[in-house]
Amino acid sequence: MQAELTAEEKSKDDFFERLAKLSEEMVAKHGKDFSMGALVLAARWIAENKAGPLKTN
């Protein structure tokens, strides 16, 4: 029997699915080295508080 996910767990799961798809697309178009570098750079920006707020149009 599997427990139902909380709203937060579902949200996190959705983000992991989106990251997986994006990663697959990046690898297909630009290779593993670029993809890993881009994701590491994104993590570094987040760690250094450089990601900034999400902009809306």
Distinctive features:
1 helix; mainly alpha; 57 residues; extended
Describe the overall structure.
By secondary structure, the protein is mostly helical. It is built from one helix and no strands. The longest helix is centred in the middle third of the chain and has 41 residues, at 7-47.
Show the helix and strand layout.
Elements: H1 7-47
Number of strands: 0
- Report how far the terminal alpha carbons are from each other: 44 Å
- pLDDT averaged over residues: 91
Quote the beta fraction.
Answer: under 5%
Total helix count?
Answer: 1
Instruction: Report the biggest beta sheet as strand number plus sense, adding barrel if it closes.
Output: none
Helix content: over 70%
Write the H/E string, N to C.
H
Structural category: mainly alpha
User: Quaternary arrangement of the chains shown?
Assistant: single chain
Q: What overall geometry do the principal axes of the alpha carbons give? A: extended
Uncertain ranges: none
What is Rg? 15 Å
What's this model, at a glance?
With 57 residues, this protein is mainly alpha-helical. The protein is 72% helix and 0% strand.
